[in-house]
Write the structure tokens for this entry.
Amino acid sequence: MTLRLASVRRTAYSVFVATALGVSPLLAQQEPKLDVIYVPTPQEVVDRMLEMAEVKATDFVIDLGCGDGRMVVTAARKYGASGYGVDINPVRIQESNENAKKSGVTDKATFKVADLFQENIGKADVMTMYLLTEINRRLRPKILAELKPGSRVVSHAFDMGDWEPDQRDVVSSKQIYLWYVPAVIQGQWQIEGEEKMTLDLTQKYQMVSGKAATGARSAEVAGKLKGTEVTLTVTRDGAKKEYKGVVEGNEIKGIGGAWRARRT
């Protein structure tokens, strides 16, 4: 994975490095004018990022700023997952393809030169990043709009501003952040089941708040999403009642079948 730092023109340096790596100097000179300083993610951090994301063979992994491809190659080799990496530097893509070949995973791990802001990421079950917080923030609307609810986003070292991570860890002094892309449940819902109730919910990322009404009685609602899984706590006159369910489009199905809610 690649860390984007200040815009530094270093074509001569890139040619030197490319020659040392056996990469065509002509290819090295194709690096973008706004260069990428390559800082690889330590392998132990790569392993923990994939572990936190609970990668499995059926997952599709996209790595933005893939560097030498170690994230997607590891996901393919260790878990049998498929995916691809994106980097704006053609030298990094050549290295990535060589590493995939050495690991025998070219049928699962591919790489391409592309602008990560223009890339369609909607196919990802897991998306990994080693960018800057500023870039993460710029990507945040794209992540929320394009990734399906329940997709996992893992970042090495840098957070996403006021979108708090669902989980964090430290490996070899390196911060790792994990987010589950939340379903959208803001709006009005009608609960049916044990008790009929109208919900008027607001949402900020995975955090939910709002009001509940049963006839003339009202109550406070607080909740949290983990992808498509939601837990809502209704507090009325000091008494709390918890509702756990799974969001499926315009319906929330209560776990255990005791209740359900429909968007109104």
Notes: The CA atoms of residues 45 and 240 lie 40 Å apart. The longest helix spans residues 90-103.
